Every structure is written in C-alpha cells, then in structure tokens.
Amino acid sequence: MANQTLDVRGMTCQHCVNAVETSVGALDGVQQVNVDLDNGKVAVDYDDSKATVENIRDAIEDQGYEVIPKEA
User: Fold this and answer.
1) Which of 58, 51, 53 is CA-nearest to residue 70?
2) How high is the pLDDT of residue 49?
3) Model confidence at 32: pLDDT above 50
4) What is the spatial distance between Cα 69 and Cα 72, in angstroms, rounded to a whole number?
5) Burial of residue 4 (number of CB atoms within 10 Å: 0-12, 13-18, 19+)
6) N or C: which end of the chain has fewer CB within 10 A?
7) Rounded Cα–Cα distance for residues 27 and 47 (Å)
8) CB neighbour list of residue 37: distance below 8 Å, 6 or more residues apart
9) Residue among 15, 35, 37, 11 nearest 24 (CA)
10) In sequence order, which ranges of the chain are alpha helices (DSSP H)?
11) Distance (Å, rounded) from C-alpha 64 to C-alpha 72?
12) What does the mean pLDDT of the chain come to?
C-alpha cells in the first residue's frame, strides 16, 4: 500500500471535490481519496501494484485541474 499527496490547483467548491474523489476513486487499486479543498491537496491511499502516481495525476487532470509537480 502506498500514499501520495498531490498539490492541485483549480479546485474551488464541493463539486470539484466530488469530481476528483469520483474520478480518482474509480481507478483500480485506489483505496481512499481525501481532498483538502482549503489547501489544494489530494491524498490518495492506493495499491502501487495496480495504480501509479501518473494514473492518479491523469485522472485529476482529466477533470480539468492542474497537478503541481513536486520540486526536486
């Protein structure tokens, strides 16, 4: 089991939260999705043998939100 927290821009309301939770939650291997609207964070618990950070990022971006890359 893995956990990833992503910084996401563009989420402004409960509809945004529902869209992200639904799209990421539908991915195979995702166990839990928690959206922190106030801080623009999306925390995901997932089985890393079934889902990847790229899958999660793509699902969020497909909903129209921007995932901010972590600084190296």
Assistant:
1) 53
2) 96
3) yes
4) 9
5) middle
6) C
7) 10
8) 11, 12, 13, 14, 16, 17
9) 35
10) 14-25, 53-62
11) 25
12) 95
1 secondary structure, DSSP code:
-
Instruction: Name the token pair of 10.
Output: 């563009």
CA distance 61 to 33: 15
% the chain with pLDDT above 70: 97
| Nearest partner of 1 among 50, 43, 41, judged by Cα | 50
Structure tokens at 41: 């964070």
Judge whether 28 and 69 are in contact, CB under 8 Å.
no
The single-letter code of the amino acid at 72 is A
What's the length of the chain? 72
Q: Locate 51 and state its tokens.
A: 């889902």
